[in-house]
Recover the amino acids of this structure.
């Protein structure tokens, strides 16, 4: 059974640009959540999607957005990149949103220069 | 005050030692997760607990819902256990502790 797949794994962007990250969940999983990890703030929740609907959103500015497609694949987008957006972005999938075992992808390392 | 507190922040052990990492939380939760993160970023879910105790190989996790406390134990630690261990509580979303960096030396 394939795990959670995130692409791209590494990317470098310039301030002001925008970036789109992709996540393919485990087959059969309908919940996809996104997290940002930085040395200073640790792991923080960005948003969660279930059956194409955003269920919950963390405390991040509107530059951070996401969506989920009918096949449960998800994308997140960050517009007008800032240096502080440099982080590891992790996607995770679960069968549903009730706190069941969660499976993480390897993450996308974003560097903003 | 953080909603999820872990201790210790850093832990060094000799191979074979018994290790305990603690997690306290201040909010009502539906589940608690113990996660392991190796250098390079990938996170692996070790346990999901809503009550009692679970064991997987040399790892044991316990939770006391009344006291809002959980512990992760590693018996007979090994250098390959070196990683960051993260406690996360599920309250409609995951709220993470700051992690415990464990180094096990041969």
């Amino acid at each position: 059974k394939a795990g959670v797949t995130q692409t791209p794994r590494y990317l470098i962007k310039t301030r002001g640009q925008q970036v789109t990250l992709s996540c393919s969940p485990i087959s059969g999983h309908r919940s996809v959540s996104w997290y940002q990890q930085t040395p200073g703030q640790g792991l923080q929740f960005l948003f969660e999607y279930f059956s194409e609907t955003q269920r919950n959103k963390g405390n991040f500015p509107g530059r951070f957005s996401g969506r989920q497609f009918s096949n449960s694949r998800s994308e997140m987008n960050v517009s007008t990149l800032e240096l502080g957006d440099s982080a590891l972005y992790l996607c995770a999938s679960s069968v549903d949103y009730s706190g069941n075992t969660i499976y993480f992808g390897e993450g996308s390392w974003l560097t903003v220069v | 005050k953080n909603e999820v507190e872990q201790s210790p922040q850093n832990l060094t052990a000799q191979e074979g030692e018994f290790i305990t990492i603690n997690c306290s939380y201040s909010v009502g939760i539906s589940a608690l997760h113990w996660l392991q993160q190796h250098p390079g970023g990938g996170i692996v879910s070790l346990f999901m607990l809503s009550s009692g105790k679970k064991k997987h190989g040399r790892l044991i996790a316990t939770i006391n819902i009344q006291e809002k406390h959980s512990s992760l134990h590693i018996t007979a630690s090994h250098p390959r256990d070196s990683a960051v261990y993260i406690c996360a509580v599920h309250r409609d979303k995951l709220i993470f502790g700051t992690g415990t960096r464990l180094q096990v030396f041969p």
